[in-house]
Amino acid sequence: MTNKIRFVQGNEACVEGALYAGLSFYAGYPITPSTEIAELLAERLPAKGGKFIQMEDEIASMCAIVGASLTGRKVMTATSGPGFSLKQEAIGYACMAEIPCVIVNVQRGGPSTGNPTHVGQGDINQARWGTHGDHNIIAMTASNHQDVFAVTVDAFNLAETYRTPVILLFDETIGHMRERLVIPEPGELDLVQRLHTSVPKDVDYRPYLPREDGRLPMSDFGGEHRYNVTGLYHDMWGFPSSNPTIVSGLLRHLVDKIDNRVHEITRFKEHCMEGAEYVLVSYGASARSAIHLAKERRSRGEKIGVIELQTLWPFPSGVIREKCAGAKAVLVVEMNMGQVLAQVRAAVREPEKVFLANRVDGKLIAPDDVKQVLRVIQGRGV
User: Fold this and answer.
1) pLDDT at residue 1, as a whole number
2) 228 part of a folded domain
3) Is 234 helix (H, G, I), strand (E, B) or coil?
4) What range does the domain containing 49 cover?
5) The CATH number of the domain where 354 resides is what?
6) For position 246, what pLDDT does the model report?
7) Does some domain include residue 62?
8) CB under 8 Å to 75, separation ≥6 — which residues?
9) Pairwise CA distance, residues 283 & 129, whole Å
10) 110 Cβ neighbours under 8 A, 6+ residues apart
């Protein structure tokens, strides 16, 4: 049996990745430019024995997948900027209660209703800080459909491993363009399944007591064990607590379980980086233009390379610092006012050598847009 080769939209590649990873429950509400994900899953998921439900709004959609995940399902929802804003409180609940789930945000122009049918990448900081309070989050992205498939599978694996929400930040261009996708055979990619507790039914079950490896086994809600789930600070049994030691320990756990494993979570790609004098840092659809420019200028003898980020949060500061260390200048290519630019400047040793090439007008940033900024930098003798 050979791998399936398809010609698909990016949103369809996301659907294929989710189904491959074992998605069994989807709740969502249609919104441009993510609607194709819901449309496709409305047909595909029930055919595979899963459950699809269109909820009355984005808040209910997020709450539905939180509840379904607690019963042992692998879950996902998809939206765009305005809907992503509505989901934030329930995302915070999933962070606090450590509930695995995947949230897709196919970005468009904003804020507010913004530019519904055009591209944007303005939700990077919202993905990190959209819900209130100290917490941590994993957010990933991709620039082509094969990688959309792969990071979607990764998102489910990471959600199950760290018992956390994982956000997929795609963008309208990636979501709606079509290109080749090779779907791996079942078993070809590793899948992380739900870690269930081995504690017997009549023995004291502590749902928030981690193992030595840091993972928290779960018991399907409504199954053998009765336990408390809350968005309040809680002890190892899940019961609310204001004890300073318990509160501090819980918050540090929520942050450290991701921060201490950045090297395991981080995904990135290098393009034309050998001896690069100018490094372009980019992600999503913007990275396609950065890569095109780097390859074209390399053919003319210019030493330009690209670091393509696939993990945006936790931000891979160590990777950026290492890969950009010898560059004459670093150019961040993105479609916002500099949200990743700020992270790159904070990571490198010489932030004054980091510049921005961007568009915020609903149009895809083109190689020529990047080249113009690069020529200005080179003209200054940087």
Assistant:
1) 46
2) no
3) strand
4) 4-183
5) 3.40.50.920
6) 97
7) yes
8) 23, 24, 25, 26, 27, 65, 66, 68, 69, 100, 101, 102
9) 19
10) 81, 82, 120, 122, 123
* Per-residue confidence (pLDDT) for residue 2, from 0 to 100: 63
Q: Please check whether residues 156 and 281 belong to one and the same domain.
A: no
183 in Cβ contact with 6 (< 8 Å): yes
Domain limit, last residue, from 153, 168, 183: 183
Q: What is the pLDDT of residue 380?
A: 83
Residues in the chain: 382
- Is 319 inside a domain boundary? yes
Cα separation, 294 vs 307, in Å, equals 11
Tell me the β-bridge partners of 104: 78, 168
Per-residue buried b or exposed e for 279-310, using 16+ beta carbons within 10 Å of the residue's own CB: bbbbbbbbbbbbbebbeebbeeebbbbbbbbb
Burial of 378 (0-12, 13-18, 19+ CB in 10 A): middle
CB 233 within 8 A of CB 242: yes
Alpha-carbon gap, residue 135 to 110, rounded angstroms = 24
Establish how many alpha carbons lie within 13 A of residue 342's alpha carbon, considering only the half-sphere containing its beta carbon: 6
pTM more than 0.85: yes
* C-alpha to C-alpha distance for 137 and 312, rounded to whole angstroms: 10
- Residue of 368, 360, 370 lying closest to 332 (CA atoms): 370
Residues of the chain with pLDDT under 70: 1-2
Q: State the DSSP H helix or E strand holding residue 9, giving kind and residue range, or none if neither.
A: strand 4-9
Taking the C-alpha atoms of residue 313 and residue 107, their distance in angstroms, rounded to an integer, is 16
Q: Specify the pLDDT at position 379.
A: 85
53-77-166 Cα angle (round to 5): 150
The domain spanning residue 114 has which CATH number?
3.40.50.970
| Res 117: pLDDT | 92
Contact between residue 68 and residue 41 where contact means Cβ atoms under 8 Å apart: no
- Residue at token pair 């336990």: 227
Residues in CB range of 361: below 8 A, 6 or more apart: none
